[in-house]
Amino acid sequence: MTPPVQLRARLLPVLCFLMTSVIGCGTEVYNQRVAATKELFEYINKLDENLGQPWAQSGVEIRMPKQMVEIPAPKFERNEEGQLVQVGEDLRQPNYMSEELPGLIGAWQGTVEADVAGEFKQVPAYAYIMSNSVYLAKNDPEAAMEFSNKVAETIVNGLNLPPYDPSDWNQKQYPPSPGLVPQQSASVWVTKTDYFIGETKAEISLHLFGQGDTTVYVLFVYPETITSNERFIERIDLSLETIKISDDRQQTGTAPGTAPNAPPSGF
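The chain above was modelled as a monomer; its predicted structure follows.
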C-alpha cells in the first residue's frame, strides 16, 4: 500500500492541473461574457446616436432616424350617435400622392442634405408605417388580406411609377448578422421615382414585415441625391433593426401557404 504522504505527493500535481484548468475555463467564460456585454452596450449606443425615441402604435414598435419628427395623428370625437369620427384632415397622409396610404398608423417628416445641381441643400424626407391591423381590428379579414396589394397599388399609382413587378422585391435580414438582437426577415423594394421633393427626384424604399396575421409596411421617401453626411440610409437599416410587431389575436387570416412578409402578388 502506498503511504499517504507519497500518495498526496503524487496527487498534488494532478489536483493543481485540474484546479488550473477549471479556473482557466471560468476565466474564459467570464471574458466571453464581458466581451458580449461590451458589444451589446456599443450597439445600444450606436442606436441612441442615430435614432430617436421608441414609438409604439397598433402593435408596432420602432425607432426612426434622428432626422425624422412625427406628424401628429388626427383627433377623434364622438358624434350624436356615439360613433367616433375624425376631426379635420389627416395631415399624416402624403399631400404629394394622388391616393391615400391604406392602413396608415404613423408618419414622420424631416429634412436631409441633398446634392441639388451641384449645391448642397436641405430637402424633405418622409417615413410612413402602414398595417393591416386597422382592418383586423374592424373584423374585416377580406380587406386585411387585400392590404398588401392595396399598398403596392396605391404607391405605384400615387407616384406614377412604372408597372409593378413582384420580382422587384428582395429579401433582407435585420440586422444582417445574428447575435445581439433577434433577426427579422423583410421583403424590400427600392426604386427611383419622377416625383420631385424640393429640387431633386425622390427615391423610395418599402419594407414589408409580418408577424402572425399582421402585415406591416415601412415606407421611406427621400431625395435620390442625398449626401452620405446624413447617414440616412444607414439609419434606415438601424431603424428597421428595432422594429417589433405583436399579434396576440387568434390567427385566422393568413392565406394558406403564404408567408406573412411575402411581397404583393400584383394587381
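The domain at 54-245 is CATH 3.40.1000 (Protein Transport Mog1p; Chain A).
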